[in-house]
Write a structure and sequence with these properties.
five-stranded parallel β-sheet, 5% strand, 5 strands, PIN domain-containing protein, PIN_dom, single chain, RNA3'_term_phos_cycl-like_CS, mainly alpha, Rossmann fold, 417 residues
């Protein structure tokens, strides 16, 4: 009996097994079809609602009240259709561009004109030849010309680069400025197409330049060589300015381009130059040698180059000197340490005391455990816990006296008996 029941159960399971899978497939298909129908209905409703509102390109009033006002204005723009008794076709009226004045277009035109006027006012010249005096003492002006939006083409003469190489050796303020100018030029040349270096063949002959208003006793042959090379470069740029700006679209109203030689207006004073650098003056136990002036310093003064440029017919653009900001103190140093560093270390015995001396003077030294609380141990005459040898004490006293001369023995040298 049990075997018969198990056999019947197995046959029923076999019959239900293949029937359950088609039912699930049919159910999933029905659900998918219902979902697609629902999506289609939603899309149809959204399309119909958009068509009823009207397909306008610009809708600036999202609120319902403003939409109603705008739609009311649109309905008023279209006159109602009149029925013709003769049965003719009604005439349709079309809106023209006169009904909507182009206000936005007028504003855009005005903005473009204002921007063009600003660029014209910012431009100092079409081509600017920079002297070494500007690179050293007015490097901020070169940064201004190198900004995006400017139109000046800046030419750096080869002689200006040679002057920077001669000035950047040493630790003086002038050498630091020359090194700064060299770094800025290295970063701009080759990256900024308007900052260029003089080509090898971009010069005119010195003998072909006419001079005027030469003082008595002064000839063109007496001009220094470094001034000649800079002026020859500026004269060549003035004669071939169209080649430098051929990539840009020149206006027909300006057939001649303006070429200027940028020179420092007045040479800065050496004292002011040191003060503007902001270098802290630290006390040194050994007197430092007096700073020697660089023999190439007149090259970056700008006085001689401006005089000879005016005599040769080159237009000069005077640039004022810019002061470099003083270096700021490091942020990780406390204020008390900064003050101590500025005033220097103390002189005499106060600056040579060890931490043990300070602790004993303040009464925070170690106590002898073998003594009674009321007794005090004998302290060395030097004030420290450890007694120093007499030779060390004598040497410290000799060093403390600035008038005495201390002789230091070389290795292997002996004192005379």
């Amino acid at each position: 009996m049990a075997a018969a029941v198990s056999a019947a159960t197995a046959t029923m399971a076999d019959k239900k097994g293949p029937i359950a899978t088609p039912n699930r497939l049919a159910m999933s298909r029905a659900l998918g079809a219902a979902f697609l129908n629902h999506q289609v209905e939603q899309l149809e409703k959204s399309v119909s609602s958009k068509n009823s509102n009207g397909a306008w390109r610009e809708r600036r009033y999202p609120s319902p009240q403003s939409n109603a006002d705008s739609m009311r204005g649109v309905r008023n723009a279209y006159p109602p259709k009149s029925r013709t008794p003769s049965g003719g076709s009604p005439k349709l009226t079309k809106n023209t561009a006169d009904d909507f004045p182009p206000l936005e277009k007028q504003v855009e035109v005005v903005r473009k004109d204002v921007g063009k006027v600003d660029r014209e006012n910012l431009k100092d010249a079409d081509v600017i030849v920079v002297d070494a005096s500007v690179l050293v003492h007015a490097i901020g002006q070169l940064k201004k010309w190198a900004r995006d939006g400017r139109e000046e083409v800046v030419i750096v003469p080869l002689e200006a680069l040679n002057t920077l190489d001669l000035l950047k050796k040493g630790t003086s303020t002038l050498a630091q400025r020359a090194r700064t100018a060299s770094r800025i030029l290295e970063a701009q040349v080759g990256v900024n197409p308007r900052i260029r270096v003089q080509r090898d063949d971009a010069f005119v002959l010195w003998d072909n330049i006419p001079f005027k208003d030469l003082p008595s006793g002064t000839t063109a042959a007496s001009c220094p060589e470094w001034i000649r090379r800079t002026i020859c470069c500026a004269r060549w740029e003035a004669e071939h300015a169209t080649e430098e700006v051929k990539d840009r679209n020149t206006d027909a109203e300006k057939p001649t381009l303006r070429v200027l030689l940028a020179v420092l207006s007045s040479p800065p004073d050496a004292a002011l130059l040191e003060a503007s650098s902001g270098a802290p003056v630290t006390a040194s136990p050994v007197p430092l040698p007096a700073p020697q002036p660089n023999k190439f310093e007149p090259r970056c003064a700008g006085t001689l180059i401006s005089q000879w440029a005016a005599r040769s017919g080159v237009e000069v653009l005077e640039i004022p000197a810019t002061q470099s900001p003083p270096p700021s103190a490091p942020k990780d140093i406390p204020v008390s340490n900064r003050r101590l560093a500025e005033h220097g270390r103390r002189s005499g015995d106060a600056g040579r005391r060890s931490p043990e001396d300070k602790r004993t003077g303040a009464g925070r030294g170690r106590r002898n455990s073998h003594l009674r609380p009321g007794e005090r141990g004998a302290t060395p005459p030097g004030g420290g816990l450890v007694e120093r040898p007499p030779a060390v004490m004598a040497m410290m006293e000799a060093v403390a006296q600035p008038s005495r001369v201390v002789r230091v023995l070389a290795r292997g040298e002996k004192l005379d008996p």
